[in-house]
Amino acid sequence: MTETFDAVLFDCDGVLVDSEAITNGVLCEMLNESGWALSPAQCLRIFIGKAVRSEARRIEQETGRPLTDEWMTAFYARRNARLAAELQPISGAVDTVRAIHALLGGRIACASGADRAKVEMQLAQVGMKPYFGPHVFSGHDLPRSKPAPDVYLAAAASLGVAPGRCLVVEDTTVGVRAGVDAGATVVGYCPGEGAVNTARQLREAGVVHILSHMSQLPGWLAGRRAAPFTAG
116-125 and 69-86 are packed helices; what angle lies between their axes, rounded to 10 degrees? Predict the structure, then answer.
């Protein structure tokens, strides 16, 4: 594991914004309406960290209907309305992003498995978008989404930093796999109650350190900033 990091790549949902329960609730409602009887907990286990379309075959098998563009458009509209009304940042995330942006000279990016419109809307809503600027990436825009590493590789390239000198912040085993396979070092955010995956699950997936609160990240990172930045 490298002892210094030149960039930090943040996941979005569950790391920067407290959106998982909102999005999962809407998805669960609409899948039940379409004929797939499943609980919110079951829905979360199946879809957490993934694009909805990545499970298109299973959705079509369980509902007996094709997953159409019209259905996805309706899902996005209902989801976005709920997010606009209810979304809050993860506790400590705004101050953490601000501090790390300053510490690393702006070399931060957001790399999500969600669609870009959702990611940018959420970052803007909680006041974080200016810190990321153009460095916002969606797995929907790449050949493969998480757990494939594509979105983290794209984020690292945009910052001019080698993946091996990037720190990834994730809260799901799906996202951890993406970061590890990109060649980055991954820390896990696990707040305890309400966490998607346990600290043990995150460690088994490959994280090197567990954060129980996002405010812990700047201090942990600052202790690993002895070496000067070298462009990748």
Answer: 10
Tell me the C-alpha distance between 232 and 216, whole Å: 27
Residue 193 belongs to a domain: yes
Instruction: Check residue 227 and report its DSSP letter.
Output: S
As beta bridge partners, residue 109 has 9
CA–CA gap between residue 8 and residue 159 (Å, rounded):
10
The residue type of 177 is R
Q: Which string of b and e fits 126-151 if b means at least 16 CB within 10 Å?
A: bebbebbeebbbbbbebeebbbbbbb
Domain around 107: 7-18+88-222
Which pLDDT tens digit goes with each residue over 109-134?
999 998 899 999 999 999 999 999 99
pTM: 0.86
